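Consider this today:
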Amino acid sequence: KLRVNRVGSAGAADGAAKWLVHTRSCLCPPFRRGVCCVSAPTLWSASSFGANATPERSGQTLQVCPLPHWRDLASETASRAATGSFEIGSVCYILDRFPSLTETFVRREIIALKDAGLDVVVVSLNKGDMVGMGTDGIIVERVDRRGFLRSSQILLRWLARCPKVFLKRACMIPGDLLASPRFAYHRIKGLLNAVHVADSALGRIGHVHAHFAYVSADAAVCLAELLGCRWSVSAHAWDIFTFPGRILRRRLRDADAVFVCSMHAQEVLEGYGIKNTTLMRHGISKEDMLSGSSTLGDYVLSVGRLEEKKGFSVLLDALALLSGSGIKLSAKIVGEGPGRAALERRVGELGLENVVELTGSLGHDEVLGLMRGSLLLAHSGIVAADGDRDGIPNVVVEAMGLGKAVVASAVGGVPEVIDDGIEGLLCKSGSAESLAAAMARLAKDRSLAAEVGAKARERVRKDFDTSKNIKPLLHYLGRCCKRTLGVGDEGEKNR
């Protein structure tokens, strides 16, 4: 546990510069309980006692060198203290992998939170799709799964430090196994991941937030228990729709808050008895909406992972119907996934080799470029055999923000963003005929495509601006950091 007390004069600069950090640091065994005296206008973390610092013994005082990526706090410390808004404790964002080509909304969310003044530490449990891809200066820390001996030492150290946490997790294993053996495995793995994160992040984290109610949530709940703080989670689509209620209830029951991106997902969770949900739709940045110019092209664009729930086979059948009726409309399908081979075979069977292009994975800027030059975006989503479906597809919001007409299946949360015939055209899920008719309507009436696209853009500007939509999460995380690591009597009480 970390206890921080402010000392020194009442002056803002002096007060912000002098802190006492009392911590038990097993990373430096000779100093089981040490005091770190900071005399420069920089905030140091207790984890500085580790490999990134050089402690020197001086009685019970440690002179500690800074962690490299905390250097940006030096310029902020005095100004925050002067305005009375100085806080200690970062928000730890835990993700299965980051960055991800299919989850650019997470990157936008983190950037918006940092721009609003919140300190966010991003932890990726696994390697992202492309290192440094679109991170915009976000520092990403990977879980350091060291050798067996080193990992065992860390585990035993935290077992001695927090025996109640391990006992609680052990008592939950039988129930987890009854729910699902795979779920029990993920929960145990989540504890191991949390131990490694806690060992390197002690003293820096004031709140833990996970994206997706899956392995990242399993790690987040354990990390929060180890560090003595609260945790929250953002749940989306597949992590809700593909799991039974018994697993979701066990996975989310200790969460302080659950944020969902569509009313459809919120209704499903509340139907399972999970009531602490908050609706917070994803959005796009104003820069994405205003950057570049759009033209009405002559091709259909569809973007997504090549998997069943995206319904690309339905799109191919619709394109075949259009081709058979004399409407020449080419298509570009962007994405990769397990369904690629099946789609390639289907393209050959339908004779669409000169109509459909499977581009593979492309960078976000490249996708936006293709959007600007397209006639329309087609989203042919369906409900997969395992129940998976989209909530509000981010690609739909992005296309609407660029002023593009969208033809989409009325599945999941899509009807929440598109008013049929006004901001886009909705079609029956799984119906190639309905999809073909909607695309033909826009291909024949390009003025309608332009009119629908303009209204779609206004809708996104009004209701899907990231800087506005993150306010519920921003206010919640801000309160949690103050409550967990508040300075003075009130903060100590909340600990």
